[in-house]
Amino acid sequence: MTAERIDGKAFAAGLRARVAEQVAAFTAAAGRKPALAVVLVGEDPASQVYVRNKHRAAEEAGFESIEIRLPADTGQADLLAEVARLNADPGVDGILVQLPLPEQIASQAVILAIDPDKDVDGFHPVNVGRLGLGTPGFVPCTPRGCMMLLRDRLGDLSGLHAVVVGRSNIVGKPMAQLLLAANATVTIAHSRTRSLPVLCRTADILVAAVGRPEMIQGDWIKPGATVIDVGVNRVPNPDDPQKTRLVGDVHYDSAVQRAGAITPVPGGVGPMTIAVLLANTLDAACRRAGLQVPDAA
After folding, report:
1. Looking at domain 30-115, does it have CATH number 3.40.50.150?
2. Is 98 tagged catalytic?
3. Residue positions in the annotated binding site for NADP(+)?
4. Distance of alpha carbon 47 from alpha carbon 41, whole angstroms
């Protein structure tokens, strides 16, 4: 048996197309475009790529894309003042401060400063609480994207055993909350979990978000399980030591022999993150305008 490849790139393209249609409807109804403001502090190369991709995707979907670039020596007070300005701007629907931030700035202080109703990253404690209570709020983009892929592949998740390997605030914990809300039976594991391979073999759904290259081997996977690999790790390329290649947290070549379906790296979960950011921003705009929030999925 060879696993079905879950094509996150194709799903994300479809989601972005649906969001673009809904943005056009919003713009006609509200008389303005939904607006996303992205703040980048410093010149981290990876962050610059992410911000450029977000800006391009937002403009292609019909959003007003606001890009704010601040020097690397920006103080925390100055960044918080910029966030306060964006909070107060009625023309801004979503605010995203690109992480990581320079060492002189406390990331948590910045997250706390963002208006929860404009927090399209879903990192503010108010949105974390809303997720736990099952009330409307913003869900971090990567877990929400994973859930879209799972529902598309499996439909009803009720009663399935889901093992989430990873406990980060950005992926692992919100992923577990979403799976619980979908009536799955959820186990959260991590790198220090005892007998982790044995536990993983019990999973109908295995979500790998531990941040260790190819840690999860094929023989850890229950035959026929659905595997969502959130990991993005750069490792040396054996064919050219001067270059690197991207791998996930799952050893793909062995996992594909046992899983029923699996996301590749790259081309799996990664493309979903920006697509869901656009969906979250549209949701924010609709709520602020008193319009019905569309079903982006």
Report:
1. no
2. yes
3. 166-168, 232
4. 9
Q: Is the pLDDT of residue 297 over 70?
A: no
Say which residue the tokens 């406990």 belong to. 167
Which residue has tokens 């006609």? 28
Integer CA distances (angstroms), 111 to 77, 83, 116, in order: 13, 10, 9
The tokens 């929860």 sit on which residue? 116
Q: In this predicted model, what pLDDT tens digit does every residue of 72-120 receive, in sequence order?
A: 999 999 999 999 999 999 999 999 999 999 999 999 999 999 999 999 9
Determine the Cα–Cα distance for residues 239 and 234; give it in Å rounded to an integer: 14
**Per the residue annotation, which of 22, 33, 93, 98 is the catalytic one?**
98
Locus of tokens 């990567």: 142
Decide: pTM greater than 0.85: yes
Task: Check 22, 33, 54, 119 and give the catalytic one.
Answer: 54
Domain boundaries, given as residue ranges, for the chain? 30-115, 141-270
CATH number of 141-270: 3.40.50.720
| Options 93, 117, 121, 229, the catalytic residue | 121
Q: Alpha carbon of 268 to those of 7, 25, 80, 273: distances in Å?
A: 6, 29, 35, 10
Can you say which residues are annotated as belonging to the binding site? 166-168, 232
Given this chain, do its domains 30-115 and 141-270 carry the same CATH topology?
yes
The answer to whether residue 54 is catalytic is: yes
Determine the Cα–Cα distance for residues 174 and 184; give it in Å rounded to an integer. Answer: 14
Which three-class secondary structure state does DSSP give residue 4? strand
Q: Averaged over 125-132, what is the pLDDT?
A: 97
Q: Where are the beta strands (DSSP E) in the chain?
A: 4-5, 35-41, 64-70, 94-97, 161-165, 185-189, 205-208, 226-229, 233-237, 240-247, 261-262
